[in-house]
Amino acid sequence: MSQVFIDTPYTPDAQTINNNHIHVLGIAGSLRQRSYNRALLCNAHHLLPPGMTMEIFDLDDIPMFNVDVEALGTPEPVMALRQAMQRADALLIATPEYNWSIPGVLKNALDWASRKGPDAQAPLDGKAVAIMGAGGMYGTVRAQMHLREILGHNDTFVLARPHLMVARPANLFDADGRLTDEATRQRLERLLVALRDWTRQVQN
């Protein structure tokens, strides 16, 4: 896979984030360097409809949630995650499925993000969220169901439809992480448009 696609940071500068666009934070629930779910987010970045910007946040440096650690001060990587969520209008989460659920790294990030700050607000509060996933024979359907439960507990507004469950992803991406399956590309485009419109509804 080439450096120009899946390994690109996809972090916009401040000038590209403005009040006229829906700014999305993309999170892949995998630490694997060439994860299909990160590739799915990278493809989403290239397929954004008008009126949207997007950055992708990697979870590699997020420590395990520990109240004792939190009491000493929020770790810098966690603060970076919380700040990225706070400046985003919406979240786009791409999750693998491990043992019928989401990976521990994703659950851990959400645990940190669920904590209230000095203003009694958590970064997750009131966020519009879309879920997608790539992996296995069923496209992470069970993980997505569990993730919906977790997000519902945290006062988010999860997009109900359309679903994007990408089964057998090895057959759908090229060596650089680009989607080669046109039907999946179209489904991803529809999800992005729906997230943009849903976020505007939530904000209003």
The coarse silhouette is: globular
Q: Which radius of gyration do the C-alpha atoms yield?
A: 16 Å
Number of domains: 1
CATH class (first level) name: Alpha Beta
- Which assembly state applies to the chains in this document? single chain
Find the count of extended strands (DSSP E, 2+ residues). Answer: 6
- Largest sheet report: 6 strands, parallel
Distance between the termini: 41 Å
By secondary-structure content and strand pairing, the structural class works out as alpha/beta
> Would you identify the CATH H-level superfamily?
Flavodoxin domain
User: Which CATH architecture would you pick?
Assistant: 3-Layer(aba) Sandwich
Helix content: 25-40%
- CATH level 3 topology: Rossmann fold
Account of the 3D structure:
- It contains six helices and six strands.
- The chain has a single domain (14-203), classed as Flavodoxin domain (Rossmann fold, 3-Layer(aba) Sandwich), CATH 3.40.50.360.
- The model has no long low-confidence stretch (mean pLDDT 92).
- 36% of the residues lie in helices and 14% in strands.
- The protein is an alpha/beta fold.
- The protein is globular, with a radius of gyration of 16 Å.
- Helix 4 links the parallel strand 3 and strand 4 (128-134).
- The N and C termini lie far apart (41 Å).
Considering the chains and any ligands shown, give keywords for the structure:
single chain; 204 residues; alpha/beta; Rossmann fold; 6 strands; 36% helix; globular
Q: Short summary of the structure?
A:
With 204 residues, the protein is α/β, with parallel strands linked by helices. It contains 6 helices and 6 strands.
